[in-house]
Amino acid sequence: MKDYKLQSGLAVTDFEVENIQDWDAPDYVDAYIYQANVCEDGVWRDATELELDELNEDLDLVYSCVQHHLGTPFYGGWDDVYNSIDE
Q1: Residue 5: which of 51, 50, 46 has the closest Cα?
Q2: Cα–Cα distance for residue pair 9/70, rounded to 1 Å
Q3: How many CB atoms are closer than 10 A to CB 52?
Q4: Which of 10, 42, 58, 81 is least surrounded by CB atoms within 10 angstroms?
Q5: 3-state class of 66 per DSSP?
Q6: What are the pLDDT digits (tens) for 23-57?
């Protein structure tokens, strides 16, 4: 997955998603990020609830995390998916 930064500029990695349901495919709108690691002052820590809320507001990020969890690539947005089909 691509590197991700919070609005504060802190780097985030190791996203863990929850509530991935087969019946929710293909958009998985009920899935959410429940854990991530944040680097602050060179030290990695668990994301706070507020940081997780910020991450979950980015629906493309959540969907990308779901696809990564399922082992299927997501190209950053539906336009990229459709454009890659046309190529």
Answers
A1: 51
A2: 28
A3: 19
A4: 42
A5: helix
A6: 888 889 999 999 999 999 999 999 999 999 999 99
